[in-house]
Write a structure and sequence with these properties.
single chain, 324 residues, alpha/beta, D-Maltodextrin-Binding Protein, domain 2, Double Stranded RNA Binding Domain, 3 domains, five-stranded mixed sheet, 11 helices, globular, transferase, HemC, porphyrin biosynthesis
Amino acid sequence: MTEKALRLGTRRSKLAMAQSGHVAQDVRRVTGRDVELVEITTYGDTSREHLAQIGGTGVFVTALRDALLRGEIDFAVHSLKDLPTAQPDDLVLAAVPPREDPRDVLVARDGLTFTQLAAQSPAGVPRIGTGSPRRMAQLNAYARAHGMEIETVPIRGNVDTRIGYVRSGELDAVVLAAAGLKRIGRIDEVTDFLSVDTVLPAPGQGALAVECAADNAALAAALAELDDPFTRAAVTAERSLLAALEAGCSAPVGALADLLADGQIVKEMRLRGVVGTTDGSTLVQLSTTGPVPETHDQAVALGRELATEMLAKGAAGLMGERAL
């Protein structure tokens, strides 16, 4: 008798469907079972308010998790950066697949880069759209430091909507995640890849989270075959930093853990973090380096260590949203 298809819960957006489709293919390969996508609408999809106003944390996740707990789906795929940092006891993060490019990118008019845009706007100050306080803080700080003048404009919407602001001439550019554009086949529209030395990504950006019920041990074990230990260690350190700062996922916090290698041998992990005011007038940006974490607790400790240093430098006073 053929086993029933596994039900994969996903948001309805083009990006969510694309990344869930990739995971579905991998799950079919490792389990030998068919996988069907179950589209679920989340609060974050229906609200027209900016994420900072509706409290960012969990708005794209809660409906999927509720469906898991009701048994309406067997597992869910999330953009990992959308996950609250506290993991519920009745759900398990079964897999964190290999990470896509974590960088932010610019889609600008006339094929311009960020520095070209600031120098060439015919209307004076270039208008750059983003819904992220984190991006606003770092772009404005970079502009200040380099004698450039920009205006960051809060926007919401899917990729089509955001890029549409540029195509219509309403904005000079928008900032998006490289990973999302790659997954939907639109990376060729990027006019500038923003260096992580200029803009640190959101904690977990570019990574996916595959979640299932904690009591479904057989499925959790099968999904675990998709896990990438280096990606999991990196995002665990980044999310530990976020949690220790007591910040929500829409707070102006950037973090990136990367591996430092000597030739082909991975030696250490470096974790960088930043918190800033959205006008870019004040940033707290620090980094720490340590052995590559071999356990969850070691990755968590790396994040907490850097958060403690950042709080000592005044990071707490720069965050508009604090977790409850």
